[in-house]
Structure formats: C-alpha cells, structure tokens
Amino acid sequence: MGRSGTTLLFECLATHPDVGWLAHHANRYPGRPELYALTRLCDWSLSFRKSIERSDQRRSLLEKIRLGPAEAYETWEALCGEKIRNSWLEGVRPSPQEREDVHGLVRAVLRWSAKSRFAAKLTGPPRIGFLQAIFPDAIFVHVVRDGRAVARSLLRVDFWRNSFRLREPAWKDGFPAAYEALWHAHEDSPLALAALQWRHVIEVARREASALAPGQYHELRYEDLLADPERRLDELLRVAALAPSTRVQRFLRSRFQLRDMNEASRRNAHPDEDALLDDLLAPTLRSLGYETAAAAPSPAAPARADTSAS
User: Which terminal residue of the chain has fewer beta carbons within 10 Å of its beta carbon, N or C?
Assistant: First the structure.
C-alpha cells in the first residue's frame, strides 16, 4: 500500500550494483530502452541519483534532473494495459503477448543498464498472481505500515485528497461489497474508505501469497525498518539473494534523514479517528503485530502467510 515506506526501501535497493529498474527519465518512452544506458552514471557516482522523495520535501531543479527509479505506470500500461494501474487483478493472468512484451522490455533494460537482476515497485492492489505468471521465480516483498497511520497519511497527500478517491474506491473491480457497506455505515467517511482499502490490500496480498512457493513472499514492517534500517536492508539483500553492498547503506546514510511519521500521525489524531480506525481495522492490525484498543465486528481477518523477513 502507498504511504508505507516503499519508496525508502526500494530506492535503497535500487543502488545495489546488480539491480536494474524502471527509471523516471525513460518512463514516458517505453519504446526507447536505450535511454537506460544513462543509469550507468549512477554506478560511477551516487551523486547522479535522486534523493529519496518525501511528500513534505520540495524538489530542487538539480533533484529533478537526477536519475532514479520510478513506479513507471506509463511503462506498465504500455505493456499490460490500464488494468495494471487501476484494477484489482486477483485471479487475472497476463496474456501470452503481455508476458512476451514485459520480458522483452526487462531484457532490454538490463542490457542497456548493464545489470543482472530486475526489481520493480508497485503500490495499491498487490497483483501478485498476475506478476508471478510473468516472473515465476519472482520474490515479493510486502512493506506493511500501521493502517491507521496509512489512512491518515493518504488523506493528507494531493494525489488522494484532491481526487475522486475521497468519494469512491481508488481501484476498480475488487473492493468487497461487505467493506463498501461498512464504509456507507460510517456515513461515507473518506477516512473509513482509505482504512478499509488498506485492510483489503493486506488481505489480498496474503491470500495471493499463500499460492507461492516457500521463500517467494516476505513481509517487512515500516516500523521495523525505521528502528534498524541497516539491518533490515541487509536482510532484504539476503532474501533477494543479492551480495552484500556498502552502496545501499551509503545511499541511505547520505541521501535521506529518517523520521518516524507514525508519531506525527498519532500526535495529530482526533480521539474519534482512533476509535473509528480501531473498530475497522483491529483484526488485521493484530495479525500484523500492532496493538489496538478495540475489537472489530467487521469481516474476518486474513489468513497468515510466510512472514520470515518481518
């Protein structure tokens, strides 16, 4: 789910010397993989890499022209259609042409960037089954943050609060009717809607993960990452069968100042919000190890999956 620390984790991983990725500067031109040759500059010096983006930071002109990884939805849409950006894809599988197109681009990206492994970051609906059908040996890392903080954060960022997402589900074809009814029962509260979508993302990710081979799915809590970022990044490299790299730790130390955004979320929260979110999310929060003050009468919590990296 967005607002969970995925950018911090992925941008550090993307500094690894073996890892290739979809880039900001090439995202508008998915048919021009030769543009990925520019990413080799980042191997020469980390000064060519963008700093880790945060919603409360303004970007300088220098930062805007630096190179860095992107979720690259324009590229994904060119390969798989708009569904990969806007829909829940549980039970949906790619066509042979979509698999071929993705494989072709990934091979080209790795060739032009001179890398041996490919990594990508996607937020929102998990899409695990869809992506695993393209990459059968993929390793899925699910970054989880306290859903109460995620819901509040979503309502503060422009791409959410200044959009239709305050009035209807953010993604099509998959929001459960029971959760929609629960949202309406809370007077169509935007906070309730954001919270229930966080809960459904967690449930679908774990449900889809249950079909994967052991070792293909790992959960990492945002709170654990902040508490000991170097250790968690080292664990992630082991999970991904990547060699240890000082570049990953050096980028973290030199280009970003870690801050626990959960604390600010709690400090600014209204007591009524706490009660609402605990009521909606308690079973899922507890299954992830978060403390709550209330039990929720809403639909059952998801089945657990392999969380060996958490």
Answer: C
Taking alpha carbons only, the member of 154, 200, 208 closest to residue 301 is 200
Domain ranges of the chain: 6-287
CB neighbourhood size of 242 (10 A): 18
What gap in Å lies between CA 290 and CA 145, rounded to an integer? 9
The dotted CATH code for 6-287 is 3.40.50.300
58-104 pLDDT, tens digit per residue, is 666 667 788 999 999 999 999 999 999 999 999 999 999 999 999 99
**Structure tokens given for 308:** 């060996």
Integer Cα distance of 30 and 296 in angstroms: 45
pLDDT above 60: residue 304: no
Write down the pTM of the prediction. Answer: 0.89
Summarize pLDDT for 270-282 with one digit per residue, the tens.
778 889 999 999 9
